[in-house]
Amino acid sequence: xxxxxxxxxxxxxxxxxxxxxxxxxxxxxxxxxxxxxxxxxxxxxxxxxxxxxxxxxxxxxxxxxxxxxxxxxxxxxxxxxxxxxxxxxxxxxxxxxxxxxxxxxxxxxxxxxxxxxxxxxxxxxxxxxxxxxxxxxxxxxxxxxxxxxxxxxxxxxxxxxxxxxxxxxxxxxxxxxxxxxxxxxxxxxxxxxxxxxxxxxxxxxxxxxxxxxxxxxxxxxxxxxxxxxxxxxxxxxxxxxxxxxxxxxxxxxxxxxxxxxxxxxxxxxxxxxxxxxxxxxxxxxxxxxxxxxxxxxxxxxxxxxxxxxxxxxxxxxxxxxxxxxxxxxxxxxxxxxxxxxxxxxxxxxxxxxxxxxxxxxxxxxxxxxxxxxxxxxxxxxxxxxxxxxxxxxxxxxxxxxxxxxxxxxxxxxxxxxxxxxxxxxxxxxxxxxxxxxxxxxxxxxxxxxxxxxxxxxxxxxxxxxxxxxxxxxxxxxxxxxxxxxxxxxxxxxxxxxxxxxxxxxxxxxxxxxxxxxxxxxxxxxxxxxxxxxxxxxxxxxxxxxxxxxxxxxxxxxxxxxxxxxxxxxxxxxxxxxxxxxxxxxxxxxxxxxxxxxxxxxxxxxxxxxxxxxxxxxxxxx
Length: 621
Fold this sequence. Notes:
The chain is an alpha/beta fold. It folds into six domains: 1-78 and 170-203, Rossmann fold (3-Layer(aba) Sandwich); 79-168, PrpR receptor domain-like (Rossmann fold), CATH 3.40.50.10660; 205-296, PAS domain (Beta-Lactamase), CATH 3.30.450.20; 318-489, P-loop containing nucleotide triphosphate hydrolases (Rossmann fold, 3-Layer(aba) Sandwich); 494-567, Helicase, Ruva Protein, domain 3, CATH 1.10.8.60; 572-617, Arc Repressor Mutant, subunit A (Orthogonal Bundle). The chain contains 26 helices and 24 strands. The strands form seven sheets. Strands 10-9-13-12-11 form a five-stranded antiparallel beta sheet. The chain has a five-stranded parallel beta sheet with strand order 15-18-21-14-22. Strands 2-1-3-4 form a four-stranded parallel beta sheet. Helix 21 (523-531) runs parallel beside helix 23 (559-565) and helix 24 (571-592) crosses helix 25 (597-604). The termini are far apart. The mean pLDDT is 84.
């Protein structure tokens, strides 16, 4: 059963049980109270404090509430023609001259009913309860024998010894009033929801919002608008007095919207939109929304940073580094120790050994793991382009520069790690700029003189001898010493052959086609993999196993498949080819000699006994 915030003020005690029974039958839960002469206003006030939002009652109670300026939705309990007929029939028992003392709205249609019933009715319509005593007195003076009306009318009739009849309400009229009150309560609930929703949107908007009515009086100002403008208690004031430069009333008069205006208020520059509020083709007010320009610039920078840094995430961790060999386990321990520091790291190792996997793992093991991980291949771009990518640029810094400028990768890596792969390929000029970042922890965009602080950890990697590059004057020695604080050397695959078997099996599981049958290596195939030198290291091994998974049609991978994928000569196949060629040569010689072995031997340049032994060895008849 739904509980509605409705109060039914029942006009007379005899109706109480009737109203309660009807509500129970209809499964409607509302409050019910007995009308008290001159006390209905207090009753309603008491229930309003309890949350009642709609009141049902006769016209007398509702007029009293209006007179007392009670702000609540009201539904009048009307009187039907059947109610009037019933009341008149009861009144005829006391006399033929009947006086009606009531609000006119209570007895609409009584003229037609009176004519139909052939009774003489006098009308004493009232506008308020205070007029009831004088109206009843007039009816008594004019010789009316019985009075029709409400409870207050019956009380006044008793003072003049006149019989009275209470005009009741039928079940239909009671239900009609209740259903109307329920609809009103639901409408109020919907309006409250809309107001709360509007209030939440306005109060928590990033824009400052001010609304005014048609007279230019401020009706809404959200906290952001109060903060920007400094207007703390502006509601109820004239907008032209509070903020004359806004000219918001002109928007209402001209019905024109003004978008994208830049204005000054409270010492701040704001970007402002002004729009009239039109309802049913009639202006009912206007709204202005605005943001500080500095705030817009900050948001733009943050959004740009987020867009550019999308994907700058380290995917690997130490759990992705496979192998149980002593060599790799030692490097993992050292790398974890390095990750716990803030020092720069130089990672060395041959191509394909997994230097970036170690770098990403150290990032994810460090306190910077929630920050960006930006990887840069210093060999991938020419020096000038790499400079703009690393350090960024401002509008017009060079031909073809973006109109908005662009943050550099060092800015995007703020709070995280930047990985400079193939650092030896960095040209001399950019080495100098990188040195400044390392020393001063700031970057300056191309074409700008603004210094931007950055908090970035640098991890550099190379597959070359960086010390030799310094000796050859291809790499700055001061930059080398700045980078080479912590050095991590990643071993080659031939230095950790004990891990090849593990890598091979895991790569095979990874590259087996989805839904395909499981594959495995023959022991000889694994031994062949372990004997290989792997100049391309782990990357070459992975590519080889992927190729094996595609080419092998059997569930067990043989040595020949591995040899084929590694371009290793197959000795058995080679021998088979040699034997096949010998058989073909003998058969051709015998055919030429018309089957005579002596003639064939002569053609082959060997004696007959040698030919016979060869034929026996080759299994020829």
